[in-house]
Design brief:
This protein is mainly α and 123 residues long. It is built from 4 helices and no strands.
Length: 123
């Protein structure tokens, strides 16, 4: 996947996810978590961008195991970073309900699917 295609799809996925989050915030129980939802979106947008940049470099490397190592390391890092963000928000933000996880995991799922598609195209 070339950079132009990536940025086009990245923009569409990001805007679509933002619209979905805004729509979900219209539900009364999710309204207090709009800021956390958009922080989650920004986090996953940043991670996807880094993944694209690093994935493109390692896919062209002479060491073909480097790309696989990057993908596995990035995936585990993303899982632990997500866990850290959720726990930090739970401790610092004192949400009144665990429903704050719904928008977070929707963003996580959307960007995980996009990253999987992206990495398949790069490889």
């Amino acid at each position: 996947m070339n950079a132009t295609d990536f940025y086009k799809y990245f923009g569409l996925v990001s805007l679509g996810t933002a619209a979905l989050l805004f729509g979900l915030s219209q539900i009364a129980i999710l309204q207090p978590y709009l800021l956390f939802s958009f922080i989650s979106l920004a986090l996953f947008m940043l991670l996807t961008l880094v993944m694209f940049l690093l994935g493109g470099k390692t896919a062209k490397s002479s060491n073909k195991n480097l790309f696989t190592t990057l993908i596995l390391g990035f995936t585990f890092s993303k899982i632990f970073l997500s866990l850290f963000v959720v726990i930090a928000y739970y401790k610092l933000g004192n949400p009144s309900s665990k429903v704050f996880l719904l928008p977070f995991f929707i963003v996580y799922l959307i960007f995980t699917i996009f990253e999987t598609y992206l990495m398949m195209k790069i490889s």
